[in-house]
Specification:
Chain lengths: 1005, 211
């Protein structure tokens, strides 16, 4: 198709670079510099979507972020993205886009039936419909999702890469229109660190929409270029184009999304698709501009009905005629500017309907001088045209603007440019908790008191003349730099000079009368995106929703991705008019981030795949991998789970490992155990307070097991602590709990016991820890630790000493989690692999077998040793575990002591740790299985407790289980039932939790 | 003592020499592991002149007491980690520097309520340099790393992506584009931090060197 609406010259497009694109299956051509919207308009395409609720044909309304209608599904498959505004999509060659919210096609939409039945879809429709019956909700929802909804989620995983960065600056300037550019220049010249963020690809903002403005005596375009060059030459100024400041949070934290490569059409190379900037600014200058307001009149939503300033933008920036024959409908000077620019671009301007009785102002004078037909005191009171406006009806209004007089005059046109005044873009200001106030002269809300280190400048601050914008922007930039502590000296220069023009005077008529009774005229839309009409608002008021916040939620006006950019003030105006109140009394609703939608990918950033979470590996990890280990996640650590040999199942491998540790020697990588170095004169006292047992008498060179409780008396950790010197201890914690335990201990040290001379240092990663366990462990160690006396005299059970193992300086603790004679060998982490290899080599003659966490779990369960987090769940006391022996009765206090005497803690029917033996020794209870008494009858069946650990024990030749059972210790020998999900019930007998070597002879030979 | 060749630096398993994907001349981010160093964690009464004096007498330079700064002399450098906490570094590549430094400090500061802990083995050190080193680190570090805010000799015990990191900007008055950062992280987080830096620097070109 040819670009039959493209002007032969002008604009900032590159006619030499023609770009092909596809919209709804049809191929078109555009130019470099186009947006999807401008390229569609160049091809005469206005119809771009169907409305949300009524499925009415909708066209391009605007030329910017405020676009409520032309929401586009861009791309295909995994790369497609919904809800993009065609007015912001930069055209690239090969772009593929689809309209949304239409089925089966844009031209013929079955949902348009909703439009005919719109009396059945009043405001609050959802609430009313879904009140009853509740079970119908699912059905309604299915139908609504299918026929309404906005766009579709992409299929498949996002193939793009996203970046995130923190950033800091002295002055953030949001918006690079005339005010923002002036602000950035003023701040930058003073030497401030400036970030200038502009959502558009170009700097200059509204200057591109205008025609003939000059700044400092030069055409505005030349001034923009000079400003760009000057800013780029400043070392401390960063210009971020295609960057949206979407949210303004506390402490001047502003979130921005930079579209790094979107405009290249998926050709990202090494660059990310988008970048999230998490920016902390000392000062913020908001120069976010203003958005033109539609007029609310019957039939104001047909394709071809556009904002007047958008028509100027398409003519002046994109060299596109929005139509061939235009009518302008305005209540202020802006409409006249649009009429002039359209006429200059060869568009036949049929008439200007002006709500003002006596239009006057600089632009009105020019339209009059140009001989354009102006109809004062008139309004568009109706429109015709299905997929494009064809005709409008213009009628005179009575003097107070409440009624249309006579039938009026029909004018043919294919574009209607409307202007209802201007809304400063207050979204970021509002998000910063700044208070807005209504300016009745300007007919809009403007910033009031700031809540943060922020100032607004230019049209977002209610200043609309170009010279005033430049002056205010310049001053704001200068002040912001000063307030950020930059001493500018005299380098700032003077504010740029330009002429002033304004859209005032204006006449505010919030709802334009139609000359027909309500319900008979066409719909007058307030919120195009959410399909809210003036009548919907009035219905909400009639139904008793008086607060503007309630009206918003009930009608959905100003909600969703649009956040009321074009609708907010009109809605408030109509509510005020209907209630007979002043607009400031009605108030304003809250603008929520994001300003326009932000894709989820940019929040994920690079925190995906391998970088989703740190993967911690021990120094011996490579050996385990080469040995074919299966790994288990323990916190962030990768631990060998078991080491299958060729052809072995997990079950076979674990059984082999478990047997080896009891019959010859097993070796395990225990590096991940948390280790906390404790130094200071009060270390023993500190341990007394954080563990339940007594530590004062522990001798140097000896270890002790400890249980750590929280204030509620519940077990939170356990581990062995060694006394290395008079005032020096080494505590071990469970692998997954190292960081929380250190934080718990530090909190007590810093907030409760600052008087104690104790220092804690995490040394988890300082050592590689290898445990050898089994009857041959001592012989093996003797072979490689030649000089050390390993006799039970020198190194008894729970003894610790220093020596050399395979030539490596090592600390050896004789402690056991398996019930076998075990040595825990700690060496510098860098020597871990060498130690492991030396032990494997030396251990060959003892048939040494590496074992993983699963075998460790079986071995300790055979001994009835608990695992914190498996037998315990934060609601288990030492008494519940049958570990009263470790709770000191003599100590005056320790964390959790007081709680252990609470009635609930000492009641006899608390769940207690017991062993379970199944009737059938082959049957292994599933962990988590619940236990009940007697035959399983009708529910509810009282639950007695649950299985916490359950394994096949190759050493015992049968299954074993640990369980927490109500009053369990009084149930020894009792038979219980475990009903399973598959319908079977397994009988088992309650026993003590220690299944093997209860006397501990294997430890203490 | 064990032969040095049997000792494995924290990132030895990654084969860093073979990872240099980008043209070394064009890469704007250079990564390298600094394999062996002494790193002693020192706690002590930072407001006590006698303690500060004892340190100075033993080490020949003053412990830094201003937040985020470092000081040094002889073979070691002290990095401020907190009002009562420092990292004492010996970065000459001696794998046995840590225990020796710890012994010396323990002796020199025996009269004070201190804790001297050798944590050399529990840290990985990644050196990142090149024109885009700052930009790469800034992606994961919430502190302001701008040359005006984070100058040579500055250090910060902070967050880098999802890891804890001690970032030290080497040198005294080197030009910002020549900035050389040493990033110390917990040993087992070293691989994650390396992979993260490689990914974060990818758009600038990354080259890896052995040291």
């Amino acid at each position: 198709m040819t670009q039959s609406f493209r002007l032969p010259e002008g604009g900032v497009i590159d006619r030499g670079r023609r770009l092909g694109f596809r919209f709804d299956g049809r191929d078109y051509m555009g130019c470099a510099g186009d947006t999807l919207a401008s390229a569609l308009l160049a091809n005469g395409v206005h119809l771009t979507g169907r409305s949300f609720k009524y499925h009415r044909p909708r066209g391009i309304l605007s030329a910017g972020a405020e676009e409520p209608n032309a929401l586009i599904q861009l791309g295909e498959g995994a790369r497609c993205e919904p809800n993009l505004r065609a007015t912001q999509i930069e055209l690239f060659d090969g772009l593929i886009a689809r309209s949304q919210n239409r089925w089966p096609s844009l031209d013929f939409d079955i949902g348009a039936l909703n439009n005919r039945m719109s009396r059945l879809l009043p405001s609050g429709f959802y609430y009313k419909t879904f009140m009853w019956p509740a079970s119908f909700w699912m059905k309604y929802e299915f139908i609504i999702r299918h026929s309404a909804g906005l766009g579709q989620a992409p299929e498949g995983r996002d193939p793009d890469r996203y970046d995130k960065t923190f950033a800091h600056c002295d002055v953030l300037v949001v918006g690079a229109g005339p005010s923002g550019l002036a602000a950035a220049l003023a701040a930058g010249r003073g030497g401030a660190r400036v970030i200038l963020a502009e959502q558009d690809a170009l700097l200059g903002g509204s200057l591109w929409s205008g025609n003939g403005e000059t700044i400092d005596g030069a055409p505005a375009r030349d001034w923009i270029e000079a400003a760009r060059r000057e800013l780029e030459a400043m070392a401390e100024v960063t210009i971020l184009t295609r960057t949206l400041a979407y949210g303004y949070f506390d402490h001047n934290f502003v979130a921005l999304v930079e579209r790094v490569t979107d405009h290249l059409g998926g050709v990202a190379g090494k660059q990310p698709r988008q970048r999230l900037w998490k920016l902390r600014a000392k000062q913020v200058v908001l120069a976010t501009g203003a958005i033109e307001r539609p007029l609310v009149f019957a039939g104001n939503d047909r394709p071809g009905i556009m904002l007047a300033d958008a028509c100027r933008t398409y003519v002046n920036r994109f060299a596109v005629q929005p139509g061939k024959r235009a009518v302008v409908f305005t209540n202020n000077e802006s409409g006249h500017l649009a009429a002039l620019d359209m006429a200059a671009a060869g568009i036949d301007v049929a008439a200007i309907a002006d709500l003002r009785e006596d239009p006057m102002g600089p632009a009105s004078e020019r339209t009059e001088a140009a001989g354009l037909r102006v109809i004062p005191g008139s309004a568009v009171v109706g429109t015709k045209g299905e997929r494009r406006v064809k005709q409008v009806r213009i009628a005179r209004l009575n003097p107070d603007g409440t009624q249309a007089l006579a039938a009026g005059e029909n004018l043919d046109c294919d574009v209607l440019a409307m202007s209802g005044g201007w809304n400063p873009s207050l979204h970021l200001f509002s998000q910063s908790r700044g208070k807005v106030r209504f300016d009745s002269g300007l007919g809009c809300f403007v910033p009031g008191a700031s809540a943060q280190a922020e100032r607004s400048a230019g049209s977002c601050n209610g200043v609309f003349g170009l010279n005033d914008c430049l002056a205010q922007g310049f001053n704001a930039g200068k002040q912001a730099a000063q307030d950020a502590g930059i001493k500018a000296g005299s380098k700032g220069g003077a504010a740029p000079q330009a002429g002033n023009g304004d859209f005032l005077p204006a006449r505010w008529i919030w709802e334009v009368p139609s000359g027909k009774p309500a319900g008979r005229a066409g719909k007058a839309f307030v919120d195009f995106q959410n399909d809210v009409t003036a009548n919907d608002l009035k219905l909400a008021l009639r139904e008793g929703y008086e607060s503007i916040e309630h009206v918003k939620r009930y009608t959905t006006t100003g909600m969703g991705t649009d956040q009321g950019k074009t609708s907010n003030v009109n809605a408030i105006g109509i509510v005020a008019q209907t209630q007979g109140r002043e607009i400031p009394d009605v108030g304003v609703t809250t603008f929520r981030p994001p300003y326009t939608p932000v894709t989820f990918g940019v929040f994920a950033g690079r925190d995906v795949d391998d970088l989703l979470d740190p993967v911690r590996k021990t120094p011996i990890h490579d050996w385990h991998e080469r040995a074919g280990a299966a790994f288990e996640d323990v916190g962030q650590w990768k631990r060998p789970w078991y080491f299958p040999q060729a052809g072995e199942t997990m079950h076979q491998a674990v059984n082999r490992e478990v047997k080896a540790a009891r019959e010859s020697a097993g070796i395990m990588d225990a590096t991940t155990l948390g280790k906390i170095d404790i130094q200071g004169r009060d270390s023993a006292e500190f341990l007394n307070r954080v563990y339940t047992n007594a530590w004062t008498k522990l001798a140097v060179g000896r270890c002790r097991y400890g249980l750590m409780l929280n204030e509620a008396g519940m077990v939170i950790d356990d581990g062995v602590t060694a006394r290395l010197g008079e005032f020096h201890y080494l505590m071990t914690t469970t692998s997954g709990n190292a960081a929380p335990v250190l934080a718990h201990l530090e909190e007590y040290l810093q907030t409760e016991w600052p008087d104690l001379d104790v220092h804690l240092t995490s040394v988890t990663d300082q050592f590689a820890t290898v445990t050898i366990s089994g009857p041959k462990a001592r012989a093996l160690l003797a072979d490689v630790a030649g000089d050390m006396d390993l006799g039970s005299q020198a190194l008894p059970h729970m003894g610790v000493g220093d020596g050399r193992v395979a030539g490596i300086a090592a600390r050896i603790a004789r402690i056991s989690f398996t019930g076998e004679m075990s040595y825990e060998i700690n060496v510098p982490a860098s020597c871990g692999l060498a130690l492991w290899q030396a032990l494997m080599t030396a251990g060959a003659k003892y048939a040494i077998v590496p074992y993983g966490t699963e075998a460790m779990h079986v071995l300790r369960a055979e001994k009835g040793f608990i695992i914190v987090g498996q037998e315990t769940d934060g609601s288990v006391t030492p008494i519940d575990l049958g570990m009263d022996w470790i709770v000191s009765k003599k100590k005056t206090d320790f964390i959790g002591k007081r709680s252990l005497t609470r009635p609930d803690i000492i009641k006899p029917d608390r769940k207690q740790l017991v062993g379970l033996l199944t009737g059938d020794p082959k049957e292994v209870l599933p962990e988590g299985a619940h236990l009940v008494e007697g035959a399983v009858g009708q529910p509810p069946v009282p639950m007695l407790g649950h299985v916490t650990s359950s394994y096949e024990s190759p050493n015992l030749g049968r299954s074993i289980a640990l369980a927490m059972i109500k009053g369990g210790r009084d149930r020894m020998g009792q038979s219980l039932q475990a009903p399973l999900a598959d319908g079977r019930t397994i009988a088992c007998t309650v026993t003590g939790p220690v299944f093997l070597d209860p006397e501990g002879t294997r430890l203490n030979d | 003592m064990i032969e040095k060749y049997l000792r494995q630096s924290p990132l030895a398993h990654m084969g860093l020499g073979a990872r240099s994907g980008d043209d070394t001349a064009k890469a704007e981010v250079r990564l390298a592991e600094r394999p062996f160093f002494g790193f002693v964690n020192l706690r002590g009464p930072g407001a006590d002149p006698a303690f500060l004096g004892a340190f100075k007498a033993a080490s020949g330079y003053a412990l830094p007491t201003e937040a985020g700064t470092s000081g040094g002399g002889g073979n070691t450098t002290a990095l401020w980690l907190g009002p009562k906490e420092w990292a004492i570094l010996d970065t000459r590549g001696d794998p046995d520097a840590g225990p020796r430094m710890a012994d010396e400090l323990r002796t020199a500061l025996a009269d004070f309520r201190v804790a001297v802990t050798d944590v050399s083995e529990s840290r990985a050190c990644i050196r990142i340099s090149g024109p885009k080193a700052r930009a790469t680190l800034q992606k994961g570090c919430p502190l302001d790393l701008h040359p005006q805010a984070f100058r040579p000799g500055h250090c910060a015990h902070t967050r880098l992506a999802k890891a804890t990191a001690l970032i030290h900007l080497n040198g005294n008055d080197s030009a910002p584009e020549e900035a050389i950062f040493d990033v110390y992280t917990v040993r087992s987080f070293g691989e994650y931090v390396w992979l993260w830096l490689e990914d974060a620097g990818r758009e600038y070109g990354v080259t890896a060197r052995l040291s």
